[in-house]
Amino acid sequence: MKKARQQLNPTFKGRPQLIDRDKIVRAALEIGVDDLSMHSLAAHLEVSATALYRYFGSKEALIDACMDEFCSRLHLPAACLPWRDYMYGIGMAFRNALLALPGVCQYGFKIGPTTPAAFRIIESALQVLHDAGFAPADAWRAYSLVVDHAFYYTQKEELFHQLEAENGAGGYRVLQLAVEELQPFPMLASAIAAITPADFDGSYEQNLVILLDGLEQALHT
Hints:
This protein is mainly α. The protein is flat, with a radius of gyration of 23 Å. It has two domains: 1-57, Arc Repressor Mutant, subunit A, CATH 1.10.10; 66-219, Tetracycline Repressor, domain 2, CATH 1.10.357.10. Helices cover 69% and strands 0% of the residues.
C-alpha cells in the first residue's frame, strides 16, 4: 500500500517518524540518570519501549550515548597552550557544556567517563600536564579538581534555582534573612552578604583561577 501511494504521489513519505536518536538522547538527559529506564523514557516520549530498542540495545548503550553527546559539546582548548591556559580552557569548556545540557551533571557524578570520547579528553589533558612537569598522580588530581569544580559548581547552581523556583528563596537567601543570628560569625556573614544568585557565572571563573593558582604553587614546591 505504501509503495502504491508513493507511485501515485512521489512526495508521500509515509507516517512521520516520532523519534530519532538525538531526540531520545536529549530526553534521557532531561529525565536524569536516577529515574532513567527504557520504560520511563518511552512514557516520556509517548512511544513504546520497543521503538527505543531500535536505536539502543540497552540502557547502558543509551547512557554511553548521553556521555558522548556531552563530550561532543566540549569546545576544547588547543593542546599547544601553556598548561595553565589549557586547564582554564578545560574548566570553561566543561562549565559551558554543562549549562547547555541541564541534567547531565547527574550522569557525570553517577556514571563518570565510560566512552572512548571521554577517555580522549582525559588523555589530552594528562599529556599537557605531564609535559608541564606534573607527575602522573598529580596530573590526574589536577585534572579531576578542575573538572569536579565545573560539575559541583553547576549542580549547586541548578539546585539553587530549583529551590528558588519551588520556595521563592534559595539557600543563601534563607541565610541572608537570619542576619542577626550570623552576627557572632562575622566572616560567614560577610561572605554570605557578598553572594547573590547573579554571582554564579562570574564567581565560577574567579574560583577556577584560585584553583589554578593552587595547582601552580604545588607544581613549583
